[in-house]
Amino acid sequence: MPLTPTQASEAVAALLDASAELFYGGDRPTVFGEAMVPIVIEVPGTQPNGNLAPATGGYGIEASQGLLGLDDEVAIKFALAHEAGHGMSERILADIGLHGISGPATEVIADLASAYLLTRVGHGWPEVLASVRAWPQNGIFDEDASGNHPSGADRVRHVETLAHAMAQQPPPSFGETALAICQSL
What we know:
Elements (H helix, E strand, L loop, with lengths): L4 H19 L6 E2 L2 E10 L6 E6 L2 E7 H4 L4 H23 L8 H17 L4 H9 L1 H4 L13 H15 L7 H10 L2
Parallel strand pairs: 2-4
Antiparallel strand pairs: 1-2, 3-4
């Protein structure tokens, strides 16, 4: 189901609240020294895409019409969380012992945090995995690796690894699992 910018902003608000609890000790997540705000700004474009962008009160997310218009609400939220995850990736990587790392780990940690956050705001792992695995249809990943972006198939594999680990009883911490995945890159 497509999301309006207002609905997308509400989804980002829930994701930022979960991020604050999980990764920021209750404080609002920040990017470039400014608050991340639950504002989604719709921009032209048919390709599903998003970016962090200056917004009233800090940094929000620009989302293309192609992204907000997808028929997969979880895929939209995953992509929005991924973009917010770029703002949090330095903090999360430092917290798991990979301070200062660059390259594909910055994309992978944003994917892992996105998937994990979605499970914290009411979406189950089967639902998250179904949306991530549908990337050839929904366009949230590119087929081939490019720059720091791993291929779509590799990105799915990393999220599947996280989901499999989180299904263990008791589950390991997100940080332990994310560290192992990022170190494998």
